[in-house]
Amino acid sequence: MMRGIHQNFDQQQAPAFFARGPSPLARLTFFTAMSLALMATDSRLQYLADVREKLMTLLHPLQVIANAPSELYQNTDEYFSTHHYLLAENARLKKQALTQDIALQRLNILSLENTNLRDLLEAKQSLAETSILAEIIHVGRDSFTKKIIVNRGKNHHVITGAAAVDAKGVIGQVTRTYPSSSEITLITDKSLAIPVQIERNGLRAIAFGHGRDNTLDLPYLPANVDIKRGDKLVTSGIDGVYPAGLAVATVVAMKTTQDSPFAHIVCMPTGGIENDRQLLLVSIPESKQEAATALPANATPASEKSKLSTAAPAAVTAPPATDRKPAQNTKPAIAAEPAPPPSANAGSRPHAQQ
Amino acid sequence: MRNNKLWSIYLSLFAAFICILFPWSGIALSLRPDFMLLVILFWLLRAPNQCSVGTAWFMGLWVDLATGGIFGQYALAYTITTFFAVIYQRRLVLFSSTQQLVYVFSLLSLSQLILLILKAFAGHEFVGWTYFLPSVTGVLLWQIAVSFGLNTGRHSHGS
Description:
- The complex is a heterodimer.
- Chain A is α+β, with helices and mostly antiparallel strands.
- Chain A has helices at residues 2-10, 24-44, 48-79, 83-121, 286-294, 301-317, 332-335; strands spanning 130-139, 147-150, 163-165, 170-177, 182-186, 193-198, 204-209, 216-217, 232-235, 247-256, 263-269, 278-283.
- The model of chain A is unreliable at 1-16 and 288-354 (pLDDT under 50).
- By secondary structure, chain B is mainly alpha-helical.
- In chain B, 70% of the residues lie in helices and 0% in strands.
- In chain B, helix 3 (35-46) packs parallel to helix 5 (73-87).
- The two termini of chain B are 27 Å apart.
- The model of chain B has no long low-confidence stretch (mean pLDDT 85).
- Classes of the chains: A alpha+beta, B mainly alpha.
């Protein structure tokens, strides 16, 4: 025993009491290297997407457990909500249903008329969008990114790239899908851009998020651009991701300075980004998108038509695209939309401002 | 005894992870302390043989998964933070409770600072000084835990 300790001391080793395996510095080096390698792999290469998906499946039951207390609270809260409140809400919803019924009747006639007009133009039919109702499980835990997780995933046919919409407008886009949940990046996130159109004059632009606060920017528009406070921005639908005509934001401030050729335009999203629980995941059918991307931007009308007809059947059989980036297919999509946009003064819409 | 301790380590780490998974939102989200790092630091002081840099790295990966960020960010932050906790562990248990509190606060801030730098590399903007609030709430939570009799490995005769 004594000899052992002496031997230990002789070899300049720590005695058993202080033994902690490899030195902290060695561990630090090893695990730092591992972390850096992981970060490089995850950000530059796409190998870890599958791993993440598998682990998220493992994590799902834990998520359900963690959500249980707040859900229980909400359920009891709803259970004890007053009679008066329910009556008021019922009356409000009935009124809303009535007005929406009328709007819906008009929509049916309009869509029929639209189909006929498209037939006359021999244009490809725009297919009806599919939508999935989802509920927010939790908002992102990262203060740098604006993301939310919803309770619908691959098992419910949610696809990456679908638009997330609530009753008031667009709120984001599905960026990752897991088996039973999916991640939505909000339009206020720094990495998301959304092609928009001013409702008043049809001017096209691209709105960018900040990530800092809940506002959107319309950068790179000239100082003399025709945008006023209170203008409504709607989706232009030329990206093949968002259906056209959805409300996005309202212009809240428009500033021009002497030292910059660009206007500084701040918009407030109309969708209830921070306060809604339910939302719709709207995806444009594959075939329309594929046809849209297959077309060159400035093709002559004749070749356009022939390409459109050849692109369409191929696109139907094409496998579903897993990743859609809004910015990439912006321009070609213009050619695939021969029909006028829903706004009344579409004829006077100027060129895209980017 | 040792086995018992191992189980309580795993259980507390698991509980911290569930705490992170809670549907935090709004102000609560910006105030939410880093439960995982607090639990890891606690066990680093209490049982440095069972819980070390490797444990922190592994749990960091799970936090990365939960936040949905790039793999390895929290892992790296936890690794470096626990390294500084480990090399001063012998001294730390001799600290007075105030000194210990300051040290824990600086460790929590260090981890946040590393995350901030990593995020800056990824092109994110600084969200303002409220970003460091979780360190403050974290230290408060630590103090609450200590005042409720949680022994952080500090020798009682040392203070």
